[in-house]
Structure formats: C-alpha cells, structure tokens
Amino acid sequence: GENVEQHPSTLSVQEGDSAVIKCTYSDSASNYFPWYKQELGKRPQLIIDIRSNVGEKKDQRIAVTLNKTAKHFSLHITETQPEDSAVYFCAGLDYKLSFGAGTTVTVRA
Amino acid sequence: NAGVTQTPKFQVLKTGQSMTLQCAQDMNHEYMSWYRQDPGMGLRLIHYSVGAGITDQGEVPNGYNVSRSTTEDFPLRLLSAAPSQTSVYFCASSHRADTGELFFGEGSRLTVL
After folding, report:
1. A84: alpha, beta or left, given left = phi > 0 and alpha = psi -120 to 50?
2. CA of B84, closest CA in chain A: separation in Å?
3. Omega into A8 within 30° of 0, i.e. cis?
4. Measured distance CA(B54)–CA(A85) in Å, rounded
5. Residue B44: its chain A contacts at CB < 8 A?
6. In chain A, what residues touch B42 (CB-CB under 8 Å)?
7. pLDDT reading at A108 higher than 80
8. Which of A49, A96, A102 has the CB atom closest to B97's CB atom?
9. What is the spatial distance between Cα B19 and Cα B33, in angstroms, rounded to a whole number?
10. What pLDDT score does B12 carry?
C-alpha cells in the first residue's frame, strides 16, 4: 500500500510570509493527492487536491505542485494569515487514502 | 443534509469493556471509512467499506470490527477495549473510494482506563 511522508512536522511563519509543506509517496500507481486542513478541535476538511495528470493547481493563496517522477508533492500558502494556523495533512490514493503524519502551522502576528 | 454524523462525541471505558461508535451519512456515499488520530501519527485507517455488504481492513484493524448492512451506516465496534485504543476516532465518507473529497464526522474522543 501507499506510504506518505510529510515534512516538516511543525512550521512557524511570520504573518504575510509563505509556508511550504512537502510530502513524498511510495506507490507510483497513486493518482490523487489531496490536502486537508484541521483546525484545533475540528474535523479535517479538504482545501485543495491534485490529480496525477496535472503538475500544478492554484486556488487563491493556496497552490499544490506535483512531481510524479520524483514522487513528491507540495503545498504552498502565500501571504499567510492567522486563520491559516492549523494542522495540515497530505494524502495519497492508490486504492485507499493514506495520510501523512501532519504539519502544525503557526502563523505569528 | 446532516453530512456525516458520529456518536458519541466522548466516551470513557474501562479496560476490557466493549462499545460501538456509530457513524451515519445522508449523502448516499458508497465509500465509508474509520480513522484514528493520535498525536504525531496523522490519520490511520482502521477499516473501510466500498459499499453495503463489503468491508476491508486498513492499516490498524486489530481490536476493531465493522459491518456495513446499509449504505448509510458504518458502525465501529471495540471488542475488548485496551488503553492503546485511547484516541480520537473519525468516520469519513466519499462518493466513491477512488474519487473526490472525504467528508469527516466531528470525531469521537475515546479514553480507555
């Protein structure tokens, strides 16, 4: 099955700066890579996803890039705001969704 | 639509007790799953189902049972609770296993003493 590794485990950024979270996956058959955001005490919610036939996808201040050859994908958050503080999970799908261990992002005012 | 509904939200058990976490969705999703969330370990898949009558094991199935008698319901049973099962449990569903967004329930915090 799929094995997804996520780095870093914690990330502290100044408000307005960018944040980048990287994930690697093991199964070359994986074809769908979502990112979930979990605010403190809440449920995870999908923020952006990318399929294997696309190299990059953007939604306002959030972007995801995928390098299938190297088997890694990244989440980029630009112009970070306090409400971006949360735990972010990447995931990869072969026949089921496997999650990374999560990155706790703290945006300092 | 209520989405994915989990009950109970909190539960304290003694070692050896059994209990069932309930999960229901009203979105007519084929795929349902249970995850446990522990600090530093992300979301680990316990069991999943791709449709009524079909279930399969995830990464950490030991000590848990599931059934899927209807499309809407996917209960998780702890057979004999152990302290290692102290965790936050999330039920999640999606239209199909191989596509689209997973919708999570609010979570159930279980403590085993």
Report:
1. alpha
2. 18
3. yes
4. 38
5. 99
6. 6, 89, 99-102
7. yes
8. A96
9. 18
10. 98
**Strands, E assignment, chain B:** 4-7, 10-13, 19-25, 31-37, 43-51, 54-57, 64-66, 76-78, 87-94, 103-104, 108-112
Cα nearest neighbour of A9 on chain B: B40
Say whether pLDDT at A95 is over 90: no
Mean pLDDT of A58-83: 96
Count Cα neighbours of B62 within 13 Å in the Cβ-side half-sphere. Answer: 2
Which of B48, B90, B104 is facing A96, going by the closest CB pair? B48
Work out the average pLDDT over A53-78: 95
**What residues are paired with A75 via a beta bridge?**
A21, A64
Largest CA distance in chain A: 41
Q: What is the pLDDT along chain B (113 residues), one digit of tens a residue?
A: 789 999 999 999 999 999 999 999 999 999 999 999 998 888 999 999 999 999 999 999 999 999 999 999 999 999 999 999 999 999 999 998 777 789 999 999 999 99
Cβ pair A35, A57 in contact under 8 A: no
CB contact under 8 A, A99 and B44: yes
Give yes or no for a contact between B80 and B88, defined as CB atoms under 8 angstroms apart.
no
Min Cα distance B41 → chain A (Å) is 5
Closest CB to A101 among B40, B59, B102: B40
Closest-CA residue of B relative to A92 is B98
